[in-house]
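User: Hi! I have a protein structure encoded as tokens and I'd like to know what sequence might fold into it. I'm fairly new to this, so please keep things simple.
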């Protein structure tokens, strides 16, 4: 093995990279991530993708690491599909990012009709009776079916605040949030402010009891 001028052994950069990936893979699989065969229903495929994404987020893995690791959780038909798809993308000089992977995944495992239905649901999504966290979860879950909005920060912010009632929408829109995180923070602040204002303005009105009318004696017949 080659040595440095100081006499210490040097390591092949490829060996270092391989060792790092082995460590990452071992740690990743210790959390028992879900697997995909490629024969599951659209709903099951969507659930798999959400679960695997959530684990990646929790581990704070970069998008490059996600692309390298996700193949280990794909078996049979799913694994064959991704190997051939990744090769085709790379042959077109396409940088395979997490977003590219998801787009290809949706096209393969979600029928057009399913994607259209989800896209329509996203377009008409309203806060309604959902609490703020439920609305955020629903919004982010459906966002992937609207790629024209998913890749545009301002469009995401606009679509998000459109789901609120007029009072919240007016307050948030006045600040012109330019991304989803900003819109969410402003919406929370607006709702909290309106709630405090409503509590301060609401003054229970005393119940006015009807006074008993005195009885007027009637003349005898």
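Assistant: Happy to help. Inverse folding works backwards from shape to sequence: for each of the 221 positions I chose a residue that suits the local structure. Here it is:
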């Amino acid at each position: 093995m080659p040595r440095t001028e100081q006499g210490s052994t040097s390591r092949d950069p490829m060996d270092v990279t391989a060792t790092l990936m082995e460590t990452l893979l071992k740690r990743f699989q210790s959390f028992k991530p879900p697997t995909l065969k490629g024969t599951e229903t659209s709903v099951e495929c969507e659930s798999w993708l959400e679960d695997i994404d959530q684990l990646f987020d929790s581990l704070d893995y970069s998008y490059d690491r996600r692309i390298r690791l996700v193949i280990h959780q794909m078996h049979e038909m799913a694994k064959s599909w991704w190997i051939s798809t990744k090769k085709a993308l790379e042959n077109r000089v396409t940088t395979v990012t997490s977003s590219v992977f998801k787009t290809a995944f949706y096209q393969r495992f979600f029928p057009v009709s399913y994607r259209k239905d989800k896209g329509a649901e996203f377009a008409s999504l309203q806060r309604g009776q959902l609490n703020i966290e439920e609305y955020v979860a629903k919004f982010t879950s459906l966002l992937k079916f609207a790629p024209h909005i998913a890749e545009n920060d301002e469009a995401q912010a606009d679509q998000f605040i459109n789901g609120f009632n007029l009072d919240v929408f007016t307050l948030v829109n006045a600040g012109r949030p330019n991304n989803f995180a900003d819109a969410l923070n402003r919406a929370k602040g607006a709702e909290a402010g309106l709630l405090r204002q409503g509590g301060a303005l609401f003054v229970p009105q005393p119940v006015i009891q009807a006074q008993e009318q005195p009885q007027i004696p009637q003349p005898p017949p």
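A useful reference point when you look it over: The CA atoms of residues 161 and 169 lie 6 Å apart. Feel free to ask if any position seems puzzling.
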